[in-house]
Amino acid sequence: xxxxxxxxxxxxxxxxxxxxxxxxxxxxxxxxxxxxxxxxxxxxxxxxxxxxxxxxxxxxxxxxxxxxxxxxxxxxxxxxxxxxxxxxxxxxxxxxxxxxxxxxxxxxxxxxxxxxxxxxxxxxxxxxxxxxxxxxxxxxxxxxxxxxxxxxxxxxxxxxxxxxxxx
Length: 167
Fold this sequence. Notes:
Strand content: 25-35%
Distance between the termini: 39 Å
């Protein structure tokens, strides 16, 4: 998977960012064609009276449709505030609920390279903090990749944000 489109906003009290999937034309065509094919198979089997198989194909189509929406229109946003980290995943028109996690002490951001063997500089972000017992925990890991340049810009703002929080 290649790095997504990255946008960031730093407003002193909060640092928010969003990553959107960057889908290629070939993947768009393939995913739309496969969804159309599955819907056609569902219609043919329904008209042919093969109901049991249709149930399995419909269940598979729902899963595949979710996969398609994520890989074509997926995005995620996260917001850091003084004591919380909030994030939300979006599948285009379908948005999952915002989840908010408490930050008990400090927070740090760790870059995670999935494809370091292939020489890719794209990475995910891991937000690490401490729980109420003082043990290190991973609060959140981005689902989408960002470029090395986006990471550096984000870290500059994150350092300024952290300095403002710790004052």
